[in-house]
Amino acid sequence: MLLVEASKVQSLFICKQLNSIGVVNIEHVDSIFAAKKSLSNFIPELIISSMYFQDGCGIEFIEYVKNVYQNSIAFVLISSEQNSELLNQVKTAGSVAILTKPFKLEELEKALNLVLLQIDELTLD
Fold first, then answer.
1. Range list of H helices, 40-83
2. Helix or strand or coil: residue 63?
3. How close are the terminal C-alpha atoms of the chain, in Å?
4. How far apart are CA 92 and CA 79, in angstroms?
5. Taking the CB of residue 97, how many other CB atoms lie within 10 A of it?
6. What is the dihedral of CA 104, 39, 35, 90, to 10 degrees?
7. Are 29 and 59 in contact (CB under 8 A)?
8. What pLDDT does 123 receive?
9. How far is Cα 18 from Cα 118, in angstroms, rounded to an integer?
10. What is the pLDDT, as a whole number, of residue 75?
11. Residue numbers in the chain where pLDDT is lower than 70
């Protein structure tokens, strides 16, 4: 899994939540540039990303991921964004789930279950 989160505090919280439900193989980066660089070295099954970074926006990043990797990587957005137009752009670009900060552990588990369903569907084709 690749976690793209600019805030160290937020990334620690998210990693702790993921660890508590059994996810341990997490690479963390803090910018879109670093995420793209990481993707050139390994292809994760899932990217969890926040919306805003100093070097860009999560919408452009998910569009990049979906175009370059042809929908082979599941994407979950975690954001405090409330603008429905922006969130719809993320959904349209292919995000499996959008979690609103602050999120509950149950919501994270539900998003991961959706990802697992999507991965199973991709392998059945």
1. 58-69
2. helix
3. 22
4. 16
5. 22
6. -60
7. no
8. 45
9. 19
10. 92
11. 118-125
Q: Determine if the peptide bond prior to 44 is cis (ω within 30°).
A: no
Contact in structure between 53 and 29 (CB atoms under 8 Å): no
- Write the burial class of residue 120 (CB in 10 Å: 0-12 exposed, 13-18 middle, 19+ buried): exposed
2 pairs with which residues across the strands?
A: 27, 47
Domains (range + CATH), the chain? 2-124 (3.40.50.2300)
Would strands 27-29 and 46-49 be described as parallel, antiparallel, or unpaired? unpaired
Walk across the sheet containing 27-29 and list its strands.
Answer: 27-29, 2-4, 46-49, 74-79, 97-100
How confident is the model at residue 65, as a pLDDT? 93
Exposed (0-12), middle (13-18) or buried (19+): which is 45, by Cβ within 10 Å? middle
- pLDDT score of 124: 40
Amino acid present at 90: V
Beta strands 52-53 and 56-57 are antiparallel
Please give the pLDDT value at position 118. 66
